[in-house]
Amino acid sequence: SHLKQGKIWWVKILTISITAVFTYSYNNVGNHSTNVQIAIMTVITLVGATPFCSTHLIPAAIGAFAGGHNIIGSTGLIDNANEIHYSNFGWLLLLSFAVGMVWCFIVANPRWNILDGYAGRLGTTTFIGMNLVMLTIFGPLGVVDWDRYYYGMVQVIHIAEEDATLPLASAWEWTEEAELAIGYVLAVLWLGIIGGRTRIFHQKYIAQQFESVDKGSGAGKQPPTPLNNVLVPVLWTMLSIFAVNVTQYKHGAGLFNGFAVGAYVAMASLQKITSTGKFAVVSLLAAGWGLALTPFFVGFAGKSGFTSMMGHVTHEILVNLLNRIRFLWKLRQQEQEMQQQQQQQQQQQSFSPTSSESIVVEEDPETTNTLGQDNEANFELPNEHWPRIDQKPKKEKFVTKYQRRQQQRLKHLQQHEEDEGSQILHHRAWVALPADGDGVWQHSLEQNAEKQEQDIA
Q1: 412 falls in which pLDDT band (50, 70, 90)?
Q2: Half-sphere exposure of residue 60, counting CA atoms within 13 Å on the CB side?
Q3: How far is CA 66 from the centre of its chain?
Q4: Which H or E run includes 250?
Q5: Widest CA span of the chain, in angstroms?
């Protein structure tokens, strides 16, 4: 049951190992070796045609990527006539085990789900395992030369690694290199667009069938099964390879590598890449990465998948960067609009006040000073004499008629005593000069007193 379900980690590693050996043998064993991309796509197609497609196709594809490379036992110059020894299969099984461990416990771990839904996820897993084995076993033991990391910097590696057997003396002209580069880019675009478009079209068709069933118009009909995201690009790749192979185009091997990169782009989740235009952009970026990585990691397993993954990740980074720039631009525009609105409001408040508190009356300073001097002694704020709302009016005391008479008598006596003991007061107006200038003005009482004194004298 575990072998049929393919969910246990050791079953996945076993599947990876079997398909790796099968692909490696198909590619290298025999008098006439097969193109590595043809071997990979053939093995994936055969596994997809078996009843184990739904349970074992993913690890089988990883095993095909691991077995498709051709640098085990390659030292010195790379050529297509590497001697195949039984020890090579031992090294291949070790590589398959390492790749399977990376897939089961790192990349596909439910806790992390690294690169989930991204293009080239399976190939990137193989590429990571290949580097781990290269750094720890193949390189130190001399199974593979270290210069495979930078082989294109010291030897002739044509665009898309079409042919790695030529020495420096057989370098191509730049026109041939340009022709191959253009063909490689077009091959990646073709497979990425046609594979992605096929999956999108079938997904929409399934959605329409479900809608018709829900509405009742498609009673008795069952929607079709969704297409496998791995098999659809692989089948398009096989068809494209056969079409190019029939023409016997001299740079056909470079186009095959381009078809592989485009196929791995088309395997991405439709939740990550949602339109044909995005598939085209990711494919174009992946093609650029493929051209840039030509001199590096020569012959490494999973390099094509890693290339497509880099194109997808680059697209995501650019999209996020553009969204960030748009967000900052909109935020800046909103801030500018708010500042303009605030300035307009301030201008409106300064020219047309809306409340009585904001009204300011400008007065002439001379008039204000004059009024202030005249009324300084008697000026009081009206607010001080206004009755407060919470202040209760004072109640007058009840006074009888007898008490009122007594108070009047007391006041009369006090006034009489004050009049007797008080001296004659002179008002300041009394000393004022008369208008006609005939001496000092005197009060009539003073004049009567003087007359009496004169009469007595």
Answers
A1: confident
A2: 21
A3: 35
A4: none
A5: 175
For the segment 273-286, what is each residue's pLDDT rounded down to a tens digit? Answer: 999 999 999 999 99
User: DSSP assignment, residue 103?
Assistant: I
Interatomic CA distance for residues 181 and 177, integer angstroms: 6
Q: What is the mean pLDDT of residues 439-452?
A: 61
| CA distance readout (Å), 20 to 42, 46, 126 | 12, 13, 11
Give Cβ neighbours of residue 20 (< 8 Å, ≥ 6 apart): 63, 64, 66, 67, 92, 93, 95, 96
Which residues have C-beta within 8 Å of that of residue 212, sequence separation ≥ 6?
218, 221
> Which residues touch 70 (CB under 8 Å, ≥6 apart)?
27, 28, 36, 80, 82, 299
Q: Residue 349 is encoded by which pair of tokens?
A: 């408040």
- The residue whose two tokens read 């929607």 is 223
pLDDT 10s digits, 67-119: 987 688 666 666 544 567 888 899 999 999 999 999 999 999 999 899 999 99
Q: Minimal CA–CA distance to 199: which of 211, 207, 187, 188?
A: 207
pTM of model > 0.90: no
Q: Which of 12, 30, 29 is nearest to 67 (CA)?
A: 29
The pair of structure tokens assigned to 147 is 């210069």
Residue position matching structure tokens 């790379």:
78
What gap in Å lies between CA 67 and CA 44, rounded to an integer?
12
